[in-house]
Amino acid sequence: MSLVEAREPFALDVLDTGLPEAAYERVAPTPVQAPELLRLNRPLAAELGLDAGALASPAGVEVLAGSRVPEGVSPLAMAYAGHQFGNWVPSLGDGRAVLLGEVVDRAGVRRDLQLKGAGRTPFSRMGDGRAALGPVLREYVVSEGMAGLGIPTTRALAMVTTGERVFRQRAEPGAVLTRVSASHVRVGTFEYFARRGDRETVRALADYVIQRHYPHLAEAGAPYQALFEAIAERTGELIAQWMLVGFIHGVMNTDNIAISGETIDYGPCAFMDGYHPDTVYSSIDLGGRYAYNQQPPIGQWNLARLAECLLPLFSEDEEQAMDIAYAGLDAYARRFDEVYQQGLIAKIGLSERREGDVDLASDLLGCMAEQRADFTLTFRRLADVAGGHAEADEPVRALFGDATAFDGWVARWRERLAAETRDDGARRAAMRAVNPAYIPRNHRVQQVIDAAEAGDMAPLDELLTVVARPYDDHEALADYARPPAPDEVVRQTFCGT
Ligand code: AMP
Ligand code: MG
User: Fold this and answer.
1) Binning pLDDT at 50, 70 and 90, where does residue 11 land?
2) pTM (2 decimals)?
């Protein structure tokens, strides 16, 4: 392709946003020196109805790098505020991301297309507006892993390197991630306007969210009450699903909580290896505010901040508005418990819920915590021994340094299994369908980053292969299911922004 052809306008079927105007500033991405496509997520491009060939062309790569804005596209940065580690921060906003617009995917769902690391915006404050390759790779792999697990999440459409360096602790290669999400409205978006006393924009934002994510509520008698309850329930479902796969988000600030119920903002996130409820990986989470077992109450705390924004929409009567807020927070807790408890007993292979089942599953977690047994493998291997007898338990026992308590637990579990009507084969299949073999383990993500920085993309491809289908066996890549060896353990993760 000649240079002239490469300069032809690049078509991208993107719709302008329907967001309230106060919620954003128009700003173009800043061109980069030497964009190179590192990965294009072709299945996702197809899902979005985008032409993968065009995206991978030189003109397409320029768009994905922010070096070219396609005709008819008017990018923007969104305003938001947030509570960071509990502290109110009145102005955050997209400091290093621009929204290209919205696409309607093959299923008819509207999705956002955003470039992360696209240069400075009016919200950049002291930041450079850029992203380093390491965090971009981490977000790509972990968000695709989350999607593979079947958990709502933003997706990664593409990664490009910029040919520029960004300066963090050291000079690092720069990169841009194309993020796809149901929308980028966050709890912090509501907070930004509510705390400024801009009730009109809060209402317009709520109407936008109803129309986009909860259209069936538009006709509800009390649409804002119904909206809050729906958001609360989706958030409860999401956090329950994180807990069931050992995911620790790491920065559950209100600006990182999406109204759509998708996982968003993969910073110092991690999947737990050895199980312990107090586990924290993030280097900046000194008090353990966002530890694994703190996620359910923090989810509710964040929703309480959202409720504060919506109180005037709930009712003019303050007391009544508060009652509505509390009812929504209760709905969160109820939904969380439902999904978590049901998920937990499914993980140990029970199909007919009986009294004591949740306690039985919790007792297994207790044994695991004592021995720091690997969270993922304990459940996965349990699927294979369910139908067996004591001698067959070795693969699971081996995950416990001292298996005495676990042995006692298995005996109780087998007794309970005897009361199930489902046969062993069906139980094993059902357990394997909810207990993944592969998660994006921290040491593997680190290996992918180290290799990519040295120009080797093979580990990235291998890790993506297993985490995209985490419930299957991948015999040639079975080593990716292995927990880290002592010298591979990653104890801390960094946001690297
Ligand atoms: P995060 O911790 O990634 O959720 O980001 C918190 C806030 O910092 C958001 O408003 C980001 O837009 C902003 N931010 C993070 N990194 C940068 C950067 N390199 N340049 C400008 N703003 C940034
Ligand atoms: Mg964020």
Assistant:
1) confident
2) 0.97
